[in-house]
Amino acid sequence: MKGTKKQALAGVAGALGVLLALAGPAAAEQGTGQILPYPGPDGLIWIPEWIGDGGAVTGGASPERPFTVTVGCQGGGSVLVTVSPHFGDRTPVSFRVNCPVGATAVGSVVLTGEQGRDFYVGVAASDQTVRWGLTATQAD
Length: 140
Fold this sequence. Notes:
Residues 1-23 form the signal peptide. It comes from Kitasatospora cystarginea. Keywords: Signal. This is Secreted protein. The protein has one helix at residues 2-23, and strands at 29-30, 43-51, 54-58, 67-74, 78-85, 93-98, 105-111, 119-125, 131-137. It is an alpha+beta fold and 140 residues long. The protein has one domain (2-137): Jelly Rolls (Sandwich). The strands form 2 sheets. A 5-stranded antiparallel β-sheet has the order 1-2-9-4-7. Strands 3-8-5-6 form a 4-stranded antiparallel β-sheet. It is globular.
């Protein structure tokens, strides 16, 4: 199973640049740093750094185990993170992270597996200069 997750993560990472560019306005762009570290073999999504609005989509999360979405940010302002399941009548879950200048703040939410086997994570930045990173993880 771990090999499958690594392959899925590589596939998501390859398509991520296109998705993120489409998700945010023209001012949004991929950063060159790393706000959050690589999540390892439990990773479903890893965005090391993004600037402005964006998001990602993933599939293949196990419905039997919880998953965690974590966002770290910096640069002033805040980010509103919304996790939306693709299928069913599940209600989106949102949380806000205040992004300090000169430091990184981190927020996360744990969801049950059945809340989002396939899900979208949207990040709306209060300012298009806010830098953020995102991980979605699920332990084997």
